[in-house]
Amino acid sequence: MSFERKRQLALRFPTEQRCTLQNFEAGPNTELVAELARSGANDGAFTALWLVGDSGAGKSHLLHGACHAADAVGAAVAYLPPSVMVGGLDALAGLDEFDVVAIDDLERWTGERAWEEALLSVYQSLVRRRGRLLVASLRAPRDVEFELPDLASRLRAAQVFAIGALGDADRARAIERLASQRGLEVGADVVAFLLRRAPRRMGALIDVFDRLDRGAWAQQRRITVPLAKDVLGL
Hints:
Elements: H1 3-12, H2 30-37, E1 47-52, H3 59-72, E2 77-80, E3 100-103, H4 113-129, E4 132-137, H5 149-155, E5 159-162, H6 168-181, H7 188-197, H8 202-219, H9 225-232
Parallel strand pairs: 1-4, 1-5, 2-3, 3-4
């Protein structure tokens, strides 16, 4: 596939630039992150992974990160959130040209025969291309309801990873890494404050740090506990 064609494909299904595997604190999910990092590797066989986790556990972040990892080695990738569905079934036309397809919030895609048939077509094209399919859901595979038994049996045969919750040590490392990546200094007192007051979910933690970063820049101040209280309204 030409570079120009690959670029055109990528523009149809853009990924979130800030969500990489490098800035996701793996914690108990080391095996999963390592497996997703291989998303662009062509091992000569089709693979399918199913991620299960609560809201805010980092499912979307991990799917985006896997797409970035695959894109970095030249694979054509597509990240499909449910918002793609507003374009109708035509929105999925051309997916047979992709090497890696990531489908977020799988439950919202299932339950309607037409959409499930479209997903089954995507699945089959990836099998032919020896690509990789990634799906994420709130519920375990056995609890997701399907209209098409063929789609259900194929997806439920995927390798399943339950995303584990981060502990305080994991969250502290995540905060320190976010600060380091942005060239910011964050003291131990700020880290301790955020561990007590910020949401435990990785996605929410990144959102909080984004607000702190913007607040520090706007006020031309260092990130301190008083600034954190001011910016976060705590």
